[in-house]
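I have been asked to look over a protein record a colleague put together. The record follows directly below this note.
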Amino acid sequence: MSRSLNKATLIGNLGADPEVRSTNTGTRVATLSVATSRRWTSRSGEQQEKTEWHRVICWDKLGEIAERYLKRGDRLYVEGRIEYRQWEGQDGQTRYTTEIRANEMIMLGSSGGRDDFQQSAPAPAGKSADFSEFSNESLAGEDDLPF
């Protein structure tokens, strides 16, 4: 049994179409901007909302699926691990980023349709393409689109 856990789970909306590139070896990598929002009522009775933006990286087959089926505004379930990176910018400054490296993705509301995805894009090895666990009906009443 593992003695540690690094797992992030998000349900949110894409803020832009996926940014897709290929590595030198031809591997597809998609970068997603996923928004999650929460609403609450302050102590003074005022409605509040806060949106968080998450950088999600999809490699290999998940990157290809994201490129083919995802568009701005799509609702998405993403599961993966949190990764931190740093590098030196052209100006000599150290830069930092936090990313979710996706290992599972379920489209909850796609312009391409769930049936097209399930038939045309096989799930990664060891992963199910079953959408029954998350459906639009189970998320009814959530109007937290950040845009």
Summary: Residues 60-69 form the longest helix (10 residues). Strands lie at 8-14, 19-22, 28-41, 47-59, 75-88, 94-109. The domain at 8-120 is CATH 2.40.50.140 (OB fold (Dihydrolipoamide Acetyltransferase, E2P)).
